Amino acid sequence: MKQMSEAGVLRKVIGASSLGTMIEWYDFYIFGMLAKTISTEFFPEGNSTAALLSTLAIFAAGFIVRPFGALFFGRLGDLLGRKSTFLLTLVLMGGSTFLIGLVPGYQTIGIAAPLIVLLLRLLQGLALGGEYGGAATYVAEHAPPGKRGFYTSWIQTTATLGLFLALGVIMVVKMNMSDQRFNAEWGGWRYPFWFSIILVVVSVYIRLKMEESPLFARLKSEGKVAKNPLRESFRKKANFKMVLLALFGAAMGQGVIWYTGQFYAQSFLETKVALNFEQSRSILLWAILLATPFFIVFGWLSDRIGRKWIMLAGMLLGILTYRPIFNTLLNDAGTDQWKTELSNSKVQKESKLLANTSDSLIHTITHIEVANGAKYIKEQTDTLKVATGTISEGKPLIKDKVLPRPVYWKFVGLVFLLIFYVTMVYGPIAAFLVELFPVHIRYTSMSLPYHIGNGVFGGLVPFIGVLLQTTFTTDPLVGLWYPIGIAALSFAIGLIYLSNKIDKDVTD
Q: Which part of the chain is the Major facilitator superfamily (MFS) profile domain (predicted)?
């Protein structure tokens, strides 16, 4: 009976911690999933590239402040306890997400719109900075000796499952309304933000029933709680050395692998491969669904052979195969051939007068062609200015692309590989970080390198990738050099300095 009781408590701990953390990731990531739509709602019209970069910068800002959240909430967690701290982060995250869905657009309140969204995004980043370390520490301190990698790997699934949930909710909403209704100022794109409040209420209710971590409770009863966790974490040379090693030898490389495999891949499918909304999202959904169990597999395996070699192998695979994989995505979609065919195509023009104008005539060209077995909807717009007598011809663009089924499933397999690398670096890292630091400063010490590695180095992958693409336009794969370079540096440091030791018991 006692064993059953302990197993039941552990399942409850993992379930409650994982659910809350998944919801926080969902809240954090729906902003990035809707970056294109948000850029049109919260920034002035006229320069879509600048608006998208500004939106991605706000998205990245949430990552950049995560280390500050790690310091603030990590300190609270080491002083007051794990349970109450990450309960607070959940409420802060959910409230900020819900409020983003209530902010009026740029057309209504002007420059105040992006400023308010930026503020709420910063609050999201601070909250997430305190959530992950608390959840990982909480589960690790409940785990039996020798199984810390396996049990903390359930927390590791939550980031990807949160992304999966965000993609799923957005797709359900998008597929049940027109594009015009979805993208309107108060349209369907706001529903996923509003939906988060329901998830948060459910999670808060569950977490209120949780008990404090037994290791921290014992520490508190013995009066051994850290008096100044920040000072003990970063002023003691031995501990600060571990913080730096955790950051540059593991978390930094893990962060860029994570965001390349999921966020950069999605952006690439949309902007470079030019897939339609449903196919780009469904490819990522299938890949996530198939890859997610490997978080558990590699967490379990790390309890037996160590964390180091699994994480470094994931980094090395990314370094060696990113450009070939993304190049295959580009070539098999036939994007270059498609652009050439479109520019050379002869089609009939349909003319219509713009509403509420007397001096502009719009010629819209729309037809369907097939190239490499894929169907394309081509659209080209020419604007005739009657008043000035000048003609401005719009450039041909790809409005939509639908891959044939064999190519579609090949793309699912390639994106699965990218996320498989993510499971290798991410599955064992919670146990690795927990084992580096003593209980009384663990929340603070492990949170900072994790959130710098993921929030700064990893979180900047989409923004730097787009920035490089707009600067060096001749190489469609140029955005990959940033994650490849960071992963290579982290691999080299980890190879030389990381230990493969597995701490089977909680030692301080």
A: 13-502
